[in-house]
Amino acid sequence: MSAGLALTVLSAVPATADYSALSARGTTPGPPNYSLAEDNRAGSQIAAVEGVHGVPDHGRYAAEGQTLGHDVSGHQGAVDWPAAAGAGAKFVYVKATEGTGFTNPQFGQQYNGAHGAGLVRGAYHFARPDVSGGAEQANYFVDNGGGWAGDGRTLPGALDVEYNPYSDDKCYGRDAAGMVAWIKDFSDTYARRTGRAPAIYTSTSWWRKCTGDSPAFGGANPLWLARYAPEIGPLPAGWAHQSIWQFADAGTLPGDQNYFNGTEDRVTAMAGA
């Protein structure tokens, strides 16, 4: 799908065959639950579980060559993109999908609107390892707006893996090896479909808890790290640096606030390379 093509938003669809297999093993009894999908967004569960501990010194981080951006979802509704650009936004990630049964009803307005306002933009997928396999969700994501275009204005898609909002089991019923395998299936499938490895959005605490602090993805997948504090803190294993830091769940831009770890030309490089 081309970068500027308007998208037809889909309604919720039935779960895939992989969900049936999970249910038969007792991993996820009952039909898939998407009742929270409209409000699930990058960091919503990280803020709920890990808390908010302040914001960075913006003058310091701007001086270090960081580039301001944000991320949005259907939770924000229609976004005033000229205003966001005027407030300093240079890039944005937009939620496209969740699991294999939900698409963001605001995706077309948000994704295409950001492009029209001159922002570098990308799409992200809210992972649901409890309802279907990683490959199935990567295909669903690409088929519903999460692809990549080598136009220098489109960031590679991002996989949002964070605490399960539907259960007290924050790792979606999977042990560390099973979670790593699920993420690898998603990443490999996305790379085959698009030619780019997806970015991985997570927090260090979730990554340690649910993947056993796996170092398997640091070589190929850009890291988009969430931590709402004055300092970014320790990174998950395998990554020497973050590409993006989500430092606050609210601020001057719509949605969550982010710094790209580099100047604006590095944002364009990530979009194009």
What does this entry look like structurally?
The chain has 273 residues and is of the alpha/beta class. It has one domain (36-272): Glycosidases (TIM Barrel, Alpha-Beta Barrel). 32% of the residues lie in helices and 16% in strands. It has 9 helices and 9 strands. It has an 8-stranded mixed barrel with strand order 1-2-4-5-6-7-8-9, surrounded by 5 helices. α6 runs parallel beside α7 (176-194). It is globular, with a radius of gyration of 17 Å. 50% of the residues are buried. Residues 1-28 have low confidence and may be disordered.
Key structural traits:
273 residues; disordered N terminus; globular; TIM Barrel; 9 helices; EC 3.2.1.17; alpha/beta; 16% strand
Tell me the name of the CATH class. Answer: Alpha Beta
Strand content: 15-25%
Rg, please?
17 Å
State the CATH superfamily name.
Glycosidases
Named at the architecture level, the CATH assignment is Alpha-Beta Barrel
Major sheet: 8 strands, mixed, barrel
- Count of helices? 9
Which spans have pLDDT < 50 for at least 5 consecutive residues? 1-28
Which percent range fits the helix content? 25-40%
Tally the beta strands: 9
**Topology order in helix (H) and strand (E) letters:** HHHEHEEHEHEHEHEEEH
By CATH, the topology is: TIM Barrel
Q: What coarse outline follows from CA principal-axis ratios? A: globular
Number of domains: 1
In spatial order, strands of the major sheet run 1-2-4-5-6-7-8-9
Structural class: alpha/beta
